[in-house]
Design a protein that fits this description.
mainly alpha; three-stranded antiparallel sheet; 10 helices; 63% helix
C-alpha cells in the first residue's frame, strides 16, 4: 500500500487540512458571489429611494451615493473583497502550519516502550507554548524527507505577517517590490497600482495561487509522514528518525 490521495490513503492530518482548504476556496468563491448580489441590491435600493423623493430644486442628483455609503457603513465592495481575500490567505497559511505539526504528531506517535519503561514523545516547544516553533517544524519534516520551507512558503508566511501585523500596509520600497503583483498591474492605471502607504494587492487569482503553492508542499510532505505511521517500510525507519529528531532537538522524550 502506498500514499494515494485519490483513494484516501493519506494521513489524518492531511484529511483535516484538505477539508480546511476546501472551506477556504468555497469561502472565497461564495463571498464574492453573495457580496456582488448584496451590494448591487443595496445600490439599487439607494437609487430607487432617492428617485422617489428627488427634487431638482433641492438635490444635485448623486445623493444616492451617500445613501449607499451609509447603508454599507462605508465598507465599499473593493474593501470588502480585500478583507475577504486577506482572511483566506491568513487562514490558509495558518492551516498549513497546523498541518505540519499534526502530521508530525501522527507520524511519531505519543509514546513508546523500551526495556519495560514507557516514554512519552512530544515535539519540542518554547516555554509556555503548546506548539513547536517554525524552525522545529522545518527541521523535523526535513528529517522525514521533505523541504517544507520553499521560496513560495517563505513568501506566503511573510505576506501573512504583513496582513496580520500591518493590516497589509506596504511601508517600504523593499515591501513594495516583494509583494506587488506586476502581472496584474500591467493593465491598471498608475493611480491604482501598488504604492508605499497603500495595501498589498491581492485578488482571487493571486490568493488561489498561494493556496495551490501551499497545497503542493503539503502533498509532498504527507507521503513520508503517512508512510512512517501507516506503512511497514516507514515504521522500519521510525527508530532512526526518532534518534535523528532527538539529536536535532525537535522532540522531547520523557519517562511516564
Amino acid at each position: 500500500m502506498t500514499w494515494n490521495e485519490d483513494s484516501g490513503t493519506v494521513s489524518r492530518a492531511f484529511d483535516d487540512w484538505k477539508w480546511n482548504d476546501r472551506e477556504n476556496r468555497a469561502f472565497l468563491r461564495l463571498s464574492a458571489q453573495w457580496s456582488d448580489k448584496a451590494y448591487q441590491q443595496t445600490w439599487d435600493e439607494a437609487q430607487e429611494s432617492f428617485a422617489a423623493r428627488f427634487d431638482p430644486d433641492r438635490h444635485y442628483g448623486d445623493e444616492h451615493v451617500d445613501m449607499f455609503d451609509d447603508a454599507v457603513d462605508g465598507l465599499w465592495p473593493t474593501a470588502y473583497t480585500w478583507i475577504t481575500e486577506a482572511s483566506v490567505v491568513k487562514n490558509a497559511v495558518t492551516a498549513f502550519e497546523v498541518y505540519l505539526e499534526k502530521a508530525l504528531h501522527e507520524a511519531l506517535g505519543s509514546s513508546f516502550v523500551k526495556d519495560g519503561t514507557k516514554y512519552t514523545i512530544k515535539l519540542a516547544a518554547p516555554p509556555r507554548f503548546e506548539s513547536p516553533g517554525w524552525k522545529t517544524l522545518v527541521t523535523a519534516h526535513k528529517v522525514l524527507g521533505t523541504n517544507v520551507e520553499t521560496d513560495e512558503v517563505t513568501w506566503a508566511r511573510e505576506l501573512r505577517h504583513l496582513l496580520t501585523h500591518q493590516n497589509g500596509e506596504l511601508r517600504s520600497e523593499d515591501a513594495l517590490q516583494r509583494f506587488r503583483d506586476r502581472d496584474a498591474e500591467r493593465d491598471q492605471d498608475q493611480i491604482i497600482r501598488a504604492h508605499i502607504g497603500g495595501k498589498v494587492p491581492l485578488g482571487a487569482v493571486r490568493v488561489l495561487k498561494i493556496l495551490d503553492s501551499l497545497a503542493t508542499v503539503i502533498r509532498a510532505a504527507d507521503e513520508p509522514a503517512w508512510a512512517m505511521c501507516w506503512s511497514r517500510p516507514g515504521r522500519e525507519r521510525w527508530g532512526e528518525a526518532m534518534a535523528n529528531l532527538y539529536r536535532q532537538k525537535c522532540i522531547v522524550i520523557e519517562p511516564v
